Amino acid sequence: MGRTVAVIGGGYGGSAVAKALDSDADIVLIDPRDAFVNSAASLRALARPDWAPNLFFSFDTLLTRGTVIRDRAVSADPVGVTLASGRRVEADYLVLASGSSYPYPAKPNAGSTATGEALDDLRQTHKELIDAERVLIVGAGPVGLELAGEIKEVWPHKHVIIVDPAERLLPGFQPEVRQDLHRQLDELDIQLRLGTGLAAPPTTEPGQAETFTVTTTGGDEITADIWFRAYGVRVNSDYLADGRLTPRTPQGQVPVTETLNVHGYDHVYAIGDVTDVAEAKMAGYAMRHAEVVARNIISQLRGEQPTAIYRPLPYPMILLPLGRRGGVGQLPTPDGPAAVPATTVAEYKGADLFTGRFAKQFGIA
Question: Where does the record place the FAD/NAD(P)-binding domain (predicted)?
Answer without folding.
Answer: 4-277
